[in-house]
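Incident log, structure service

09:12 report received: a user says their structure output differs between two submissions of the same chain.
09:20 pulled the input from the user's history:
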Amino acid sequence: MYTPPLFREDRPEEMEALLREFPLATLVVMLGDGMEATHVPLLLRDGVLVGHVARGNPLAGADGVAAVAIFQGPQHYVSPGFYATKASDPRVVPTWNYVAVHAHGTLRTFTEPARLRAVVADLTAHFEGERAEPWHIDDAPGEYIDKLLGAITGIEIVLERVEGKWKVSQNRPMADRESVAEALGDHPMGAEVKARI
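09:34 re-ran on a clean worker, output below:
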């Protein structure tokens, strides 16, 4: 990922927080016939990204290939009109503020039913955890879950390199950073970007 030093995010805790808050990754691998990308929620567990894909997904047969999981956090268009300094210096252009993490490693796949069940249970507990009445894997009939487990492949990526990019107006004067934050506060995703400026 092209990351000028001003936009580089190196703090592991900040990058891990983004992975937890925005777990839907674009997982990209190079296969024999070209690049393949799929969107899949991944959980970070002790330096390993864990999830699953359908058995019919090309990634299900991609054991041992290099992979990058791209996590995108808050993002928003930035108009030149957001800049406070535009009134005194019209040399401004539109841009985009965003936060992203690229997690690199080797993709490993598995199909053992007990391991798959543990991954599905972990994903479910993670995403259902805040609900007043969370759904549990045992709420569905066992034979139904077993059938579905036979239709998925577990994936894991042991992280070898993690890159963070926080492009949130750091290259602008403080007056512009403040005016961009104020302008973004009125937009749903803008508030998320604003929190990182």
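09:41 both user submissions now match this output. Likely a transient worker issue. Closing.
09:42 reviewer note: DSSP finds five helices and eight strands in the chain. The domain at 5-111+150-194 is CATH 2.30.110.10 (Pnp Oxidase; Chain A).
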